[in-house]
Fold:
Amino acid sequence: MRIFLAGTGSIKPEIFNTVVQKYHPYVLESFFYMNNNVVSNLKNFEDFLLDSGAFTFIHNDKSCNFVEYQSKYINFINKYNIKHFFELDIDKVIGYEEVKKLRHELEQKTEKKCIPVFHLERGLDEWKKLCAEYDYVAIGTINQYNKRPEILRQLVAIANNYGTKVHGLGYTRLDKLQSMNFYSVDSTTWNNSSRFGEFHKFDGNTIKKIKFKGKRLVYNDTVILNNLTEWCKYQKYIDKR
Structure:
């Protein structure tokens, strides 16, 4: 299983470059937040996933010109030869039929298959159809499965029967991670915990949070460097397993 580190673009270049050159991590980044920090390291990542950033775009631009936004997305994918990228899964905004039209254009103009992002509202038949047509799919709105993990396991099992890889978007339940049989997931936990002044440590099996009783560590470069490094170690360990 591959754990992609998300939200790395905001790291100071001197920290990010040092860790990337040493560990060559798996990274997921949003197109909306794409910056030179990530672009300059695209060839140094062992694997990279590009999220469309469409929902962020919705909340930041009231005009929401998705055709124009996708055009820029396509140009970026082609310019940097991005191999794995997600569709604009904005079903709740424009409806699934329009999403499929955007998907078709995205694939036609990049000459590559995207990673479709499934939502329960699309129905089980659509999930099976996507698994039959694609070799890599994703499941979105992952938190809705927390109380019904059996549904998530069922979806992954169906995909596995088709020989299709599944990415769990934003799935960070370390205690259940290996039992879900995802091919990949992404997480910002490494960075969110840094913001609360927690040191993380890879203990040879999982990530442990180190807290100091009665004290709160300052969110600084030392904490960020430590946590990013430990998560790089963890993601390579999980992938080998």
Observations:
- The chain has ten helices and nine strands.
